[in-house]
Amino acid sequence: MFQKLLFYTLVVVTFDAMMYMFSNKKYRGHIELKHYFAVLKMPIYQKSLVTKILIVQIFLIITMAFTN
User: Fold this and answer.
1) What is the pLDDT of residues 26-54, one digit of tens each?
2) φ and ψ of 66, to 5 deg
3) How far apart are CA 21 and CA 37, in angstroms?
4) For residue 9, with 0-12 CB atoms within 10 Å meaning exposed, 13-18 middle and 19 or more buried, which class applies?
5) Between vectors from CA 12 to CA 33 and to CA 47, what angle results, nearest 5°?
6) Beta carbons within 10 angstroms of residue 16's beta carbon
7) Dist CA 13 CA 15 (whole Å)
8) CA–CA separation, 17 vs 61, rounded Å?
9) How far is the CA of 18 from the CAs of 24, 57, 66, in angstroms?
10) Full-model pTM
11) Domain ranges of the chain
């Protein structure tokens, strides 16, 4: 169960950071790993990311509870 939670958390973080960078004009074109970490350090972005991670984890826990 922990492995699934960790995997889906990493998927959410990566997907959401990429969507943020592709929607921002500053990051269009060439994206490096330093840009990825710079986005993850922004306080406003961190708040929305934590909310999305919590929603995904709650949904995953509920679905795992009903499938077992």
Assistant:
1) 766 677 778 778 888 888 888 888 899 89
2) -85, -20
3) 11
4) middle
5) 85
6) 17
7) 6
8) 23
9) 10, 20, 32
10) 0.70
11) 2-67
